[in-house]
Amino acid sequence: MVPVSHFLILGAILFSIGLIGVIVRRNFLAVFMSIELMLNAVNLTFLTFSKVHNQLDGHVFAFFVITVAAAEAAVGLAIALAIFRRRKTVNVDEVDLLKH
């Protein structure tokens, strides 16, 4: 049996990688992928604590996080596509919606 600390350390590492990706990356798609990685790290942590405490609360929260992640991906990709069609770039630094 794998110790609980291994799952929590893995979740922390995945969350850190996602956070670094959000901070460092300038491409919309890479930022969205990093956010998805962070959300999956949170899911891993929820499920780990759910298993440790023998409750289903973590599973319910993980289900809601997956739902929010799917909605975020759909809306985020639609916004990225609209910005790309208008500005011809997906670079976060080059997009300023208030200026034409």
Shape: elongated
Structural class: mainly alpha
On the 0 to 100 scale, the average pLDDT is 90
What count of helical segments does DSSP give? Answer: 3
* Rg estimate, integer Å: 17 Å
CATH structural class: Mainly Alpha
| CATH architecture identity | Orthogonal Bundle
Query: Would you list the SSEs in sequence order as H and E?
Result: HHH
User: What distance separates the N and C termini?
Assistant: 58 Å
Low-confidence stretches: none
Mind describing the biggest β-sheet?
none
CATH fold description: Helix Hairpins
DSSP strand content: under 5%
Number of strand elements: 0
Q: How many structural domains are formed by the residues? A: 1
Write the SSE topology.
Layout: H1 4-24, H2 28-53, H3 57-87
Helix pairs in contact: 1-2, 2-3
